[in-house]
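#struct-queue
[09:14] JT: dropping the first one here, sequence first, then the structure tokens:
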Amino acid sequence: IVESETVMKALRAYSERDMATAIFYLKKEIKDNPTNGYANLLLGIIHSQIGEYSEALEPLNNALTYIPADDKKSISQALDSKGEILIELGDSAKALECFDQAISLKPDNANALLNRANAYHDKRDYDRADKDYAALCQLMPTDPKGYLGLARNNLERDNYNGALTILNDAIELIPNDGNVYLMRSEAYFLLDK
């Protein structure tokens, strides 16, 4: 990130969860240095986090223009953030394009994998969602999100035993996550119906 005094003030405000002040300083930085892709990226992320989706798109597009091409991690993050916003704005097709690009640049971008898997799930494209959830399980074996996604897809396909197998495996790896136990109880309930 370009570390001007203004950006440092914005980062400090952001770390203190003072979004209004962070936005103020980031806008000041961008006015003084419009090609600061990192300031644009952070501004877009903050607008997204506080639900100002239409305000987030322009700085994210600027970030994609100005972040150096060799910084694949930041570009992937900007694409993932843009995809999240497009989902919120109801454009899942363009969102999926953003997630695809983010993952292509950085295959270990767990957030983009999860977002793409959820987007496929919402379209009821369970096979593609399963591939991303499985990749997430491989990438982050002690994080429940991938297992929960796989189990949810199995439940929606009425494959209760498949869901239980996944959830039991998850419990072995992540014994303290209540969400896994909750979904397992739902699977048992559905199996007994």
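[09:21] JT: and here's the second one, same format:
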Amino acid sequence: LNLFLRGFTFRTTLNDQENCIKSIFKTLLNDLSANKVKIKVILTTYKNNKNYLFIKFIEKFFKGKIIDKRLDANIFKSQSDSFIETLRIANNFKDTSLITRADLIFIKKIPLNRLDKKSFLFQWKHFHDFKIKEVPDQLHFIGVNQIKNIYNVCKNNKNKLGLLPDKTGYYTLHNLYNILSENNINSSYIFN
């Protein structure tokens, strides 16, 4: 499994960021690690002056391979830009990918029975707004058989990834469900 950590880091305190990283490895990925799933961490977070601390926090809770592909926020200016770049990088690694923001605290383990190499999974089955099918943007699982397809669909629909039917959400990922559906890509969810 390729774990991509994306987005901004150190949005609040050092302690908060360390707790976010701890929750990823001690909670979210706990069952994967317990079942000997080999995990690589690929950093596609934005570069900042605390990069060394971020890696130090990861190394405190994770003893595997860390690949640094951090992004420049001056080049990848929006959430959709950085997500598409993360997908491009994921396309070069031959395995399933879990893409998550690095500034979140997780309280649930990923259920192994939900992960499938042919699937694209959102974090849960509930929409932020059911009427316009607005989805959360924090956590995505992409099976190895879907990565190239998802990358191409997102790249070709970059300007619509966040643009919801109510004309809000530019450059986010909140319209991702609608884009995938329009392109006949089935999706499901990780958590109930």
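[09:30] RK: nice, looked through the second one.
[09:31] RK: Strands lie at 2-7, 40-45, 66-68, 97-101, 120-124, 139-142, 188-191.
[09:31] JT: good to know. Residues 14-28 form the longest helix (15 residues).
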